[in-house]
Design goal:
Chains A, B: Belongs to the group II decarboxylase family. Two copies of one chain form a homodimer. With 494 residues, chain A is an alpha/beta fold. Chain A has helices spanning 14-34, 48-52, 64-75, 97-109, 120-136, 157-176, 194-202, 225-237, 260-270, 307-310, 325-332, 367-402, 428-444, 472-491, and strands at residues 150-154, 184-189, 210-213, 241-248, 273-277, 302-305, 318-322, 406-410, 416-421, 451-455, 458-464. In chain A, strands 1-7-6-5-4-2-3 form a seven-stranded mixed β-sheet, sandwiched between helices.
């Protein structure tokens, strides 16, 4: 594995491929063995790695062993360790042996299945796995290929949102003419992911036509039909055109749930596109006890969820289903000469060209990754995975509620607990500062990483259970850590 | 590696991770050993794989060994083998041992570096490698971080185009107001990748304001200043606003080269954004003898190229550089509460949050992949890689030109040769049919895969050299195959 003489450069020699790749596998296995020894959130000053590395790329190559030594020395200390069992921040990003195997197969076969011909099995396997997933989540028939709809694997929810917004926009503009773009209005709640506003801005919806509807504790911060209907009616009265409602099942801040069926009826009434963003909580819908949150999905035009969050599928993988694929391909199709299939046109009628279901032309063979995950763990294994985390979150919610110094701010829906330290007789402003300090102290300890949210002026700490290696002992340790830091802060007179 | 009892499901157990991952490595090494034994373009009927697989996901998990057996039996025969040494279609998608190692590290560490805090080293390594790449390509100082610009790794050129179009659009609309979107005009040539028109449509540019400018053989199908200037002046005279010119260095159809410096002067004169799309040929610019094609890049606002094509970097990886990052972050920033960094705000001024440089929030740690490629092969190794393919393409162009039955339709610029069979005394229409049949016969043989293009009503066959395992003997064999099929067709009286 020494540096390469130029004339002998064989970048895909099978023997050196096997040797060097095995070294990386061993490196990663060691990383997983030791991941809980690193500070979960990187304890790094800005600019550290930039100063460490040379200003220019090396002129000559180096051995894989030496490169891995450098990863160990220079890279690992600067990571925030998303695979640490004590990572409770944001939402999880599950790695797994099967997800990694699928990613290796995707990267190793390295096909680019933009049209069917460019790798038929990649397209068809994708159709199969998105139908499998639709069944597992209990989605209505209209989102399955066999029901006239269909799914696609994107890299992110934002891409799914941009594509469906473009579909809804172009459907509307085909009647209004392009100048109608100035009249189009989109609707979301104050809990909807920022990605939606960004997506609307990307597709050219006027910023003034983006409605952020207020939610409250009464509905558990879920969006209800009444408020959407009122907003739509106001806009219609002003001569605007309601385009798209984004409903979320499991919001990022609080895990809140919008009322899908109610919103669906409103959307139908006004002819607006309804998208269901179940990026995080969609995974839970493989368990029958959580499928009720998607009740009414047959009234939606599209639905997305991210296996790369809580479904043991390494980054990246987002499932998007649409009820009427033609609306999307009308907006996103291209048909340049260099992608046409010579001699195969006759059989093409039955095939899908996924380039017309996404933003980019090129794409990765993500289907094999999700397929390996489903094959390796089975539906039963995946349900056990989800339920294990829910149980740990239940336990955590219980101990927080039972400790009189703390409070659960919003009832837990899935595996996310939102809470704060709330000593009696402390002014609101002081409580906010206290929780801010508590979170900073927890994260600075390196023993866990959590993030926060603000709702109704309350600063709340979010603990999202869901790591692939997270066990009950890690959740217990997080709770002990929180109590320890809370004691320190209260003792020093915060 | 048997099926998993539910209670014991440990999806990231380091020991089983190592064992199962090694099995995948061995599987892929065997695949590379045998890849030239498969038909390069899949010889599959539509629906084959869909019929082969069960309708529902399995309830119980299976062993990795059994899954790999199924990949061998069901998946491999349905692939079009992009890593075959006889894959000459589209443009190459280079896999390499280093690119795969980098992909494994990215997938295995599985961090999501949307903000600096979410993995500081991932952000900073990205800044380092895009600066390294900018230097290797000889890009002007203004595209380096140290020069006030900066780069980012996207998944595709289309994403780069959408982000820069949104930046240019919002810069213009900040003066015009949002209703100005109806006046914005974008410019490209009839050789520009379809991705650009799709990108313009995604960001809401009116379809009627998309100018496709005619190129000709006189300029080698490159876009010249004269034609762009005329189009811009017509639009200005009509009260429209010229927004964005897309220049391509190495077009998909023919490998044509737009005149960057000339176009830059026009763009400056009218205040339009100039983007340089060097998706394929940008890799060649690491060799000084090809850097001249980017001459004038200091007049551009942005430039992109894809290491995932011809730079030994497994899918996906697109470098985008911008001269003024603020224009892009103004268009793409979000700042939701759940992504703010508690206790670290003070040091954030110096850091980059890459979520504001791209469409999606989430992102993969692509930087480590490109870094491993550069470390493993070095600049010298990469130049040797590029030059090896160029030499093979030169040889192929030479033998085609020397055979009187064939003709090179457009002079070769890089590693793409565009040619056709042109028997004397044959009518144009018959020549077109003949080449269509020739291409179909070559691809149906399974011994090579090429694609086509149409220029000035000529059907041309494209042979793009660039596979990681492609050697001179494969290019020779492709030429023998073409001659053999041409003889057959001519003998049967085409």
């Amino acid at each position: 594995m020494g540096s390469l003489p130029l004339e002998a450069m064989m970048p895909l020699n099978p023997d050196s491929f096997a040797g060097e790749s095995s070294a990386v596998v061993d490196f990663l296995a060691d990383y997983y063995r030791n991941v809980d020894k690193y500070p979960v959130m990187a304890n790094t000053q800005p600019g550290t790695i930039r100063k460490l590395l040379p200003e220019a790329a090396p002129e000559l190559g180096d051995s894989m062993d030496r490169i891995l030594d450098d990863v160990q020395r220079d890279i690992l200390p600067g990571l925030t360790h998303w695979q640490s069992p004590s990572f409770f921040a944001y939402f999880p990003a599950n790695a797994s042996t099967a997800g990694f195997a699928g990613e290796m197969l995707s990267a190793g076969l390295n096909v680019v299945p933009f049209v069917w011909t460019a790798s038929p099995v990649a397209t068809e396997l994708e159709q199969v796995v998105v139908d499998w997933m639709a069944s597992l989540l209990g989605l209505p028939e209209r989102f399955h290929f066999k029901g006239g709809g269909g799914g696609v694997l994107h890299g992110s929810t934002c891409e799914a949102v941009v594509c469906t917004l473009a579909a809804a926009r172009d459907r509307a503009l085909s009647k209004l003419g392009h100048e109608g773009i100035l009249k189009l209005v989109v609707y979301a709640s104050d809990q909807t992911h920022a990605t939606f506003q960004k997506g609307a801005s990307i597709v050219g919806i006027p910023p003034a036509n983006f409605r952020i509807l207020r939610t409250s504790a009464n509905s558990g911060y879920g969006l209800t039909a009444t408020i959407v209907q009122r907003a739509i009616e106001e806009d219609v009265a002003r001569g605007l055109v309601p385009l798209y409602v984004c409903a979320t099942v499991g919001t990022t801040g609080l895990g809140a749930i919008d009322r899908v069926r109610e919103l669906g009826h409103v959307a139908r009434r006004y002819g607006t596109w309804l998208h269901i963003d179940a990026a995080y909580a969609g995974s839970a819908a493989i368990c029958p006890e959580f499928q009720g949150h998607l009740d009414g999905a047959e009234l939606a035009d599209s639905l997305s969820m991210n296996p790369h969050k809580w479904f043991l599928t390494n980054m990246d993988c987002c499932c998007l289903w649409v009820a009427n694929p033609t609306t999307m391909t009308d907006a996103l199709s291209t048909d340049p000469e260099y992608l046409k299939n010579v001699g195969t046109t006759s059989k093409m009628a039955e095939t899908v060209d996924y380039k017309d279901w996404q933003i980019a032309l090129s794409r990765r063979f993500r289907a094999i990754k999700l397929w390996v995950v489903l094959r390796r763990y089975g539906a039963a294994g995946m349900r056990a995975h989800i339920r294990r985390h829910i149980q740990m979150a239940e336990w955590f919610e219980h101990v927080v509620a039972a400790d009189e110094r703390f409070e659960v701010v919003v009832p837990r829906n899935f595996s996310l607990v939102c809470f704060r330290l709330r000593p009696r007789f402390m002014a609101d402003k002081a409580v906010e500062a206290l929780n801010c300090d508590l979170l900073a102290a927890v994260n600075a300890s390196g023993r866990a990483f959590m993030t926060h949210f603000v709702v109704d002026d309350k600063f709340v700490i979010r603990l999202a259970v869901g790591g692939s290696m997270t066990e009950m002992r890690h959740v217990r340790a997080a709770w002990e850590l929180l109590k320890e830091k809370a004691n320190d802060l209260i003792a020093t007179g915060c």
